Amino acid sequence: MAKYGLVVALVVLFVSCRTAKDAKRLTVVSYNVENLFDTVDDPQTNDNEFLPTAKKKWTPERYQKKLDDLARVLADISPDDLPEIIGLAEVENQQVLDDLVNTKALAPGQYKIAHRESPDKRGIDVALLYRPATFKLGGYQAIAVDPGFATRDILHVWGKFRNESFHFFVNHWPSRIGGLGKTEAARVIAAETLKKKVDQLVADDPDACIVIMGDMNDEPFNKSLRLVLGAGSPGAGSDLVNLMAPLAEAGQGTYNYRGKWNMLDNLVVSSNLLDEKGYRLSSPAGVVFRESWMEHTNAKGEVSPNRTYGGPNYYGGVSDHFPVYLTLER
């Protein structure tokens, strides 16, 4: 009986410690997972490239490997406990999200999913995973972006950590295909759409904690983020702060194009997360998460994210982007 009592006491202590940790330290991740498609043909989605019979030969085995690799990345970001919030870009549908949260590495987090199908012509969406034991969901909505062609919606998710209101915006803005200058206007429209929503939100609740994340296909100093959204560098005194700006200025990035690093994945927060009240950021900048097994080194010695595909060629990597994250402490 004494031994049984000791076991019960240790279990209670362990659960109490985890609960205390969950309430006081929170990890928020943003990750472009590079075309996370299932292997089933959907007539409503442009998924013909990602089928077992396609040139890419997207088989169930390759699909499961990608799921397991992505789960490993997400679990390794926060080794003491799984991240509380995960924003994702380039997911096909609800099924791939269900499959991801049920992988061995992520299943202990008991994640719930916020997701809406978007009108994107490639059939890819954004989504947010959250742990309901810590984050109490209030609701979510898809915000349409109309740059003149079908693109991803912006996903707005709101709820509470303890008694503090949080709003998360998951983004995947129009790409740079066709040239940076020629495509800039589409990303400016996305930024204007987001800015309008954020301004309305702040007008209703000046104390709301806001976290904007995703693959904007622009860097912190580009027009869409710096001028239109108004996200300045830490210490610049702006209402919105881009935590990836210091890393971009230092030449770091999340995506490598022809040997040049680009900080396309951004984390923007409201300035009240930089004060000493309630939840606050544990550091003045975000973090790019990368490990050697997620990287590819070419013949020139240049390192880039190890992607899953290059055209029809299967490389077996995780994603062509590195994830970024921030940590909140109370």
Secondary structure class reads: alpha+beta
Q: Which residues sit in consecutive blocks of at least 5 with pLDDT less than 50?
A: 1-22
Please tally the β strands and state the result. 20
Order of helices and strands: HEHEHEEEEEHEHEEHEEEEEEEEEE
Number of domains: 1
Q: What is the CATH superfamily?
A: Endonuclease/exonuclease/phosphatase
**DSSP strand (E) fraction?**
25-35%
What is the CA–CA distance across the termini?
39 Å
Average pLDDT, rounded to a whole number, is 92
Total of DSSP H or I helical runs spanning 4+ residues: 6
**Portion in helices:** 25-40%
Structure summary:
The protein has 330 residues and is α+β, with helices and mostly antiparallel strands. The protein has helices at 2-24, 60-77, 94-101, 180-204, 223-228, 245-249, and strands at 25-36, 85-91, 112-115, 125-130, 135-143, 154-161, 164-172, 209-215, 231-232, 240-242, 255-257, 260-262, 265-270, 280-281, 287-288, 295-297, 303-305, 309-310, 313-314, 324-329. Strands 1, 2, 3, 4, 14, 15 and 20 form a seven-stranded mixed sheet that branches.
